[in-house]
Amino acid sequence: MSWPSCPWAAVTIIYGHAGKPFSSEKILQERVRRLMEEIGSPTYVTDGRTRGFSFHGLLKNAACYLAELGLSDTEIGSICGMNTVRHYTKRARALMVAHGASNRFTRGDVLPFKGRQIKEGAQ
């Protein structure tokens, strides 16, 4: 089933110049590419190389941002039109878990293990 023939079950939040939803994914991607060129083709540096943003990368960033806001995989998939949300948001979710654990530790919510204690000067 192609994108234009899919039944619309959600509110469209991206519209073209005519005030109507984009008729195909390709047209939307081309519009995003043109907008990026108009603002100077933003780039980023990774592994010492300068790279340009891609539509796929922007979609992944959107999914990670929505995960950080607390949306479920189902909600993110519905908004972004993705089936493999967990794959793309894995690092964002791991970072959220790490921050939560760090916050619990610094607040003192984590208690030390009971048992053998280390004496001063012992190695």
List the helices and strands and how they pair.
Layout (H helix, E strand, L loop, with lengths): L24 H14 L4 E4 L2 E4 L2 H14 L4 H8 L4 H23 L16
Antiparallel strand pairs: 1-2
Helix pairs in contact: 2-3, 2-4
Short key terms for the protein model shown above:
mainly alpha; two-stranded antiparallel sheet; 123 residues; 4 helices
Report on the structure:
The termini are far apart. By secondary structure, the protein is mainly α. The longest helix is centred in the last third of the chain and has 23 residues, at 85-107. The protein has two domains: 9-52, no CATH class; 54-107, no CATH class. Strands 1-2 form a two-stranded antiparallel ribbon. It contains four helices and two strands. The mean pLDDT is 77.
* Unreliable sequence segments: none
Structural class of the secondary elements?
mainly alpha
- Could you give the order of strands across the largest sheet? 1-2
Helical amount: 40-55%
State which percent range the strand residues make up.
5-15%
Biggest β-sheet description: 2 strands, antiparallel
Rg over alpha carbons = 22 Å
The number of distinct helices, counting runs of at least 4 residues, comes to 4
The ordered H/E elements are HEEHHH
- The beta-strand count equals 2
Quick structural overview:
The chain has 123 residues and is mainly α. Helix content is 48%, strand content 7%.
